[in-house]
Amino acid sequence: MSKMKAHKRWDKGLVNLYEPVEGRKAQVAAFMSGSGTNVQRVLEYEEMLGDKSPFHVSVIVTDRPKTSNARKIWSEWTEKWGAGSIQFVAHDIKKFYAKRGERKVSIRTQKGQEIREQYTKTLSAMLEDCTIDFAVFGGFVPLTNITDDFPCLNVHPGDLSHIVDGKKTLGGLHEVPIQAALDEGLDYVRSSVILAVRYTGVGEDMDTGPLIALGPKMLIGDVKDAGTIQDKLKEASDWKVLPIAVEEVARGNVVVDFSTNRVYHSKSGGTGIVIPQTTHIKDYLE
Hints:
Elements: E1 14-16, E2 26-32, H1 37-49, E3 55-62, H2 70-81, E4 87-90, H3 93-98, H4 110-126, E5 134-137, E6 152-156, E7 163-164, E8 167-168, H5 176-184, E9 188-189, E10 192-195, E11 211-214, E12 218-219, H6 226-250, E13 254-257, E14 262-265, H7 282-285
Parallel strand pairs: 2-3, 2-5, 3-4, 5-6
Antiparallel strand pairs: 1-13, 6-10, 7-8, 9-12, 10-11, 13-14
């Protein structure tokens, strides 16, 4: 299905993020803004699984067609898998804001928020003809409520299971979670995969979605520069956990209880992914 309008049925109770259809692979949209290394790893993982892969990256989406590697990645994999194997959708967010009189791409003003909603509606319309079961944000920068249309997995450069005084302290964009870990004196960093949810305001609730998976821990050591640590974290944690999380969802193994914001994992067919607060709901999945 191309549009699930998922939020309408995710208000409460247990929901399997994707229910496999016999004889059909889950169709995954990969969203990216920059180098696309996370998207590249998901594509490589699909290739490695071969015919046994439960998913197929069917479309690559970018908000930065001029500066990202999106078109290059799309071209390389289309050449490998054949014409029409992957669709390409580009919606330039900087140009979209500029046409509406805004030099800066931001949601910190009321006008900026209104433009972002317009941008999202336009992007949603551009994806209408694409078959999308769920999506992956692999370094997709702009906050967007495209999350209303289908489940969106987002890889985050911080341990969102780390709680201090009842609060997640390693949230935020880009290097912020890593700098927070340094400031707290933690000796490790790790990536999280969350279900991206509808943002409000200026996005202060962007990291509140259900925590689907945790990547391997990477010891910080003597390195104290957040940017350098983030580059290393991609290889040590992002690239290991994100492809497996995509596979797990595509196999129908991930269930979310939206009344508690907890994630549960299937007892059978699992890949051994690390999910916090794991409980097996055998009756639900079988």
